[in-house]
Design goal:
mainly alpha; 6 helices; globular
């Protein structure tokens, strides 16, 4: 029951956010946190879906791209993971160490 309600809440939040991202800062923060929580809980496909929704809505957040890269890598979406890691590198010239993102990038690049 709890998982079903969580899914419904997440779906409703996503729909409301996509309808008007600029007017829904609280929902943006909620979805950013959900993406982080889902990736931390190893729910990579769901975390990646939420992260991509935010990225597609032009949200720029370092932790968002770290979560998206990590989730994409865990889902064997290596090109997508590299794309997000490249965005991180371009934005600040380094990757940082959240969830060993540097190691993921090295693994992808060989």
């Amino acid at each position: 029951e709890g998982s079903r309600l969580e899914g419904e809440l997440l779906g409703a939040a996503a729909r409301a956010f996509v309808a008007d991202p600029a007017a829904n800062d609280d929902l943006k923060e909620f979805l950013l946190e959900m993406a982080s929580l889902l990736v931390a809980a190893e729910c990579y496909e769901d975390g990646l879906r939420v992260a991509q929704l935010l990225i597609d809505s032009q949200i720029e957040d370092r932790t968002l791209f770290q979560n998206a890269a990590y989730a994409a890598y865990a889902c064997a979406e290596f090109d997508l993971a590299e794309e997000y890691l490249q965005i991180l590198v371009k934005s600040e010239g380094k990757l940082g160490d959240t969830w060993h993102v540097d190691e993921v990038f090295i693994t992808i690049r060989g």
